[in-house]
Amino acid sequence: MREPQGTVPSLIAVIQTMRLFACSMLLLIASSTAYAAQQTVYYSGVSFLGDNQYIKSSYPVALALNKTSPQQPRAALDAAFYELLTQSANLPFTLSPQLGNYKSGPAIAMTLAIERESVSIESFQDYKKVVAEISAQILFFDFQAMRLLASIPVDIARNDVIGLDKSEEQARTSNLTALYQTLNTSDESLLSLAVGYIEQFGLPKEGVVRFKVSDVNFGDKASPMIPKRLQQQALSQVFGQYFTAQLAHLSGLNMIPYTKGYAIGNKMAGRMTNGDVYTLTLPEPDYVFSVDISNFKSIEQTHKYLFASRVKFNAREATNPEPMVDDYFHAAVAKLVSDKQTYIDDWAAYEDALETLLSDIAQQLSAPQKKWFDSHSQHKRRTYNTVRKWSEHINGI
């Protein structure tokens, strides 16, 4: 029976209104509770990974940008990173503005730890091509126990062109500076990229399954291809860091930083902006990966070269020597050759091929494709089936 207009609402309407009000209150309470329970993270600014005696030579640009003085008591990178973090509406934690003091008590601290500054310059007939790269780790750690809880790798690169008469040293400094502190707000910097990763991945939790790249080695055929100006151990560190970043971002794995070359055992050293040296204890991995770089090759074609890399990739449980995945993989990249190019940097092309291959492997561990394994692995279908089962196992944990 229809109610006359203007009468008291029906009992059903009242109940519906009360239910809506109750749901709204529950959502408000839940939201308030979640906000109140949000973890506090203590901001420890920018730091630098590695042995303290090598930090000055390893990170000249970052140190110059982040130095303090009586006129500027707060380091510029520390202040800029903190400002970007506080401007974010999507941080998964409450940020405390405590800087550099990691001895304050049982709480989680965060630092953006720089682990590599690199610049390569390639000469052409009319110009020079500059490629600048920075790698870092966002480290979350218990700053009373000095124990690493989780990390997020961050990599950024920049290409530039300079005249033949321009200073290469000035090009190195200006391009690395642009990656740290871009003057154009539309361009991405290391700091803004780090904030985006924190928002995307959230605050990592303890008790998760952890993965680690344990070794990156160069084989007898690959080693002679490395330019004499480069140190093999340093290159192993670079590619270990790169592969770790790809596994974290493309496979979504909880990666422990690659520390071979600047850590002893499960200890990782670094230095805060204020000069305090720290040593973090790393968690033990559940699974480990190793990469043996076996060979590089190049093939000349019309107006281009093909540069190829071949590696042996091994994945196993940390406590079991028997591999779960063990096969050779290869990939090639094309490099166009200009008539005006006076010098071809083979090593830069080999690096591109190796990075492409490592990135592809990381992607395939998350979403294996039979066609890719048929083209890029030695054992093809057999390895594809193994990786597919391994991927299903890991995604199911």
Helix/strand-derived category reads alpha/beta
| Rg of Cα set | 26 Å
Second rung of CATH, namely the architecture of the domain at 211-253 and 286-397: 2-Layer Sandwich
How would you spell out the order of helices and strands? Answer: HEHHHEEEEHHEHEEEEEEEHHH
Number of strands: 13
- The average pLDDT value, as a whole number, equals 83
Measured by DSSP, the beta-strand proportion falls in 25-35%
Distance between the termini: 57 Å
Count of individual helical segments: 10
CATH class of the domain at 211-253 and 286-397: Alpha Beta
Largest sheet: 8 strands, mixed
Helical content class: 25-40%
CATH topology of the domain at 211-253 and 286-397: Double Stranded RNA Binding Domain
Based on Cα principal axes, name the global outline. globular
Low-confidence stretches: 1-36
What topology does this entry show?
Blueprint lengths: L10 H26 L3 E10 L2 H7 L1 H6 L10 H12 L6 E3 L11 E16 L3 E16 L4 E17 L4 H13 L9 H12 L9 E8 L13 H19 L4 E2 L6 E2 L2 E6 L4 E5 L5 E15 L2 E14 L7 E12 L9 H21 L3 H7 L4 H15 L2
Parallel strand pairs: 1-2, 1-3, 6-7, 6-11
Antiparallel strand pairs: 1-9, 3-4, 4-5, 8-9, 9-10, 11-12, 12-13
Write up what this structure looks like.
The structure is a single chain. The chain is an alpha/beta fold and 397 residues long. The protein has a domain at 211-253 and 286-397: Double Stranded RNA Binding Domain (2-Layer Sandwich). It is built from 10 helices and 13 strands. The strands form 2 sheets. Strands 1, 2, 3, 4, 5, 8, 9 and 10 form an 8-stranded mixed β-sheet that branches. A 5-stranded mixed β-sheet has the order 7-6-11-12-13. A hairpin with a 4-residue loop joins strand 9 (267-272) and strand 10 (277-281). Helix 7 (232-250) packs parallel to helix 8. The chain is globular, with a radius of gyration of 26 Å. It starts with 10 loop residues before the first helix and ends with a helix.
